[in-house]
Amino acid sequence: MSYRIGAFIVFMFTLLVSWVLGGWVGYRQVEQDSIEESFRYRQLVGNELNRYLPIPELMAEHPLLVEALSSPGNRAVIHQANEQMQRMATIAGSSDVYLMDTSGLTIAANNYQQADSFVGRNFAFRPYFYEAMEGGHSAVYFALGLMSGVRGLYFSHPVRGEDSRILGIVTVKVLVHELESQWHRPDSTREAEMVVLDEAGVSFLASKPEWLYRDFTGNTEGAPGEASRQRYPERDLEPVSLQYLGKPSGLSGLSGTLRIREDGGGREYLSVRTPLPRLDWTLQVMVSTRSVVWTRLGFVAGGIAIYFGVLLAWLYLRERYRREAELALRGEQLERSVAERTADLERSNYKLLGEIRERERTQDELRETQQELIQAAKLAVLGQMSAGLNHEMSQPITAIQTYARNSRRFLEKGAADMVDANLSEIVLLCDKMAELTRQFKVFSRKSEGPPTIVDFRLSVDASLKIIAAQKNSAGINISWNSPSQPVYCHGDLIRIEQVMVNLLANAVQAVEGMEHPKITIDVEEKEGSWRCFVRDNGPGLPANTEQIFEPFFTTKSVKQGLGLGLSISRQIADALGGRLTGCNRTDAPGAEFEFTLKKREAME
After folding, report:
1. Residues 164-216: pLDDT tens digits?
2. 8 Å CB contact between 389 and 436
3. Contact by Cβ (8 Å): 510, 538
4. How many CB atoms are located within 10 Å of the residue 406 CB?
5. Helix, strand, or coil here: 583?
6. Whose CA is closest to 168, among 243, 84, 251, 59?
C-alpha cells in the first residue's frame, strides 16, 4: 500500500505544479498581447498628434489673423478672417477653426454663419486657451464641445504681432472618430476591451459604449471634480464598479488583475496601463483572463499525461525486472526440459525426414504420371485422327500411282515432256504427304524444356494443319484472323499446339450437322496478356460450364473421346501461367473458349 500512497501524493503535487505553471504562462501571454496592443495604439495616438500639432502654429503665421486681432472692429477684415477660417478647416480636415483675442472672446470662426457659431463666445476658462496664453506655446486639450457636445481634440497656438506680443489664440478642433476608427481589438477570442482615461481617471474613449464617460479610479465614494464637469458637461461620470485584485507573480509593474461588476455579474480582466504621448492620458487595455484558465487546464492535462507516462514507464520497468527474474528461473527449468525433449525431437526428425522423402518421391511420380497422361491424351487425339490421316494420305498415293503409270506409257511413246510434268506432280504430292506426316510427328512428341518466348501464331497455324487433315473438317468454314505482327507470349509451342488442337477438335465435333458450320479464331491484347478466342456456332455448352473441365466428363460418344482433352488443356494453361475458360456465346448460338497467356517482348 505504501507505493500507492506515494503515487497519489506525487499525482497531487503534479497537479499543483501544473496549475501554478499554467497560470504563470497564461498571464504572461495575456500581458504580452496587451502590451503589444497598447504599444500599437500609443503609436497611433502619437502619429495623430504629430499630424495636427504644427497646423495651428502655421495658421498663426497668417497676416490676416494678425490684422483681425489688431482691428476687431473692422467688419471687412473680420469677414475675410471668417472666410479664411473656413478654408483652413477644409484644408486641415478639422471640425472647427476659430480665433480668440487675449480675453478669450471669439472674434472669427469657420462656423460664423451657423446658429451655434463660436463667434461672440468666451472660452477663457478652457485649458487650451490659458495654457497657450501663459506658456506662449502650443497647447493640446481634450473635451466635449460646449455647443455641439461632440468629443474633440483642441490644438491651439498664440498669434503674435510684429513686436512678438501675443494678440490672441487660434484653435483647431479635431474629432476623435479617427482615433476610434483605428482601434481594433487585439484578439476577439480573448475578449479584450480598451479605455483611454484622462488625468482624473475618466474614460473618453472606450471599446464598449457603456464604459464611455465613466470613472475608472475605483473610488466609489468620491465625486468627479469641477474640472471634469466642465470638460464633460451634462455627463453623469458614474464610477465603474471594479475591484483591483493585485498583480499575479511573474508580471511587470504595469499589469494587474481587476474584476468589473456589471449586469448582475462580474468578469475578471488583466489590466495593462500605458501613458500616451504629450498628454496626461492613460491607455488601459483589459483582456479577459478566461484564456488563463484554459492554459492552466492545458498544463494540467499535460502534467497528467507526463505523470501517467512516467508512472506507466515505472510500472513497465518494475514488471520487466520481475519478469526477468521469473524468466531466469524458468530458463533453468527449460534447460532441463530441453535435454529431455531433444531425444524426442531427434526421433521425430528422423520420422519427418522419411515422410519428406516419401512425399517427394510421390510428387515426382505424380508429375511423371501427369506428363504421361498428357502424352496419352495427345496420342489418343492422334488415334482419333487416324481415319482422317488415312483419307488425306490415300488420295495423294492414288494420284502418285496414276501419274507413275501414265509416265511409263509416255516413256514408251517418247513423250519426255509429259513424263517430266508427271514427275513434278509426283514430287509435289510427296512434299504434301511429308509435311502432313511431319506435323503429326511434331505434335506427337513430348515437350522439351521450360516455357520461353514463343509466337502464338505458329502454334495456331500448326494446329490448323492437323485439324485440316480430319475427314469431318471438310465443309467447315474455319476463320483464323491472324495478326500481322508477332504475338509473343510466355509458353511452349508443342503444349500450346496441344491445347489449340483440343479446342478446335471439340469445335469441329460441335458444328457437325449444322447447316452453315463455322469456327472463328481471334487474338486480342488486354492488360499485358494475349487472349485467344475459339468460337463456334454449334449447340453450345451445358449449363454447368465448369463441369466440362473435370476429367472423364463428356457429352460425346466413347468413339469421340474419353473426356480428358479439356481437363488436360486447363492443366497445361495453368502450368504456363495462363487461363482456360469456356462459356456460351452471348452474340450468337454456340460456345466460346478463351485461352489467355502472359504477354512477352521479343527483346526479353
Report:
1. 889 899 999 888 766 666 555 444 445 677 888 877 788 777 777 777 778 78
2. yes
3. yes
4. 16
5. strand
6. 59
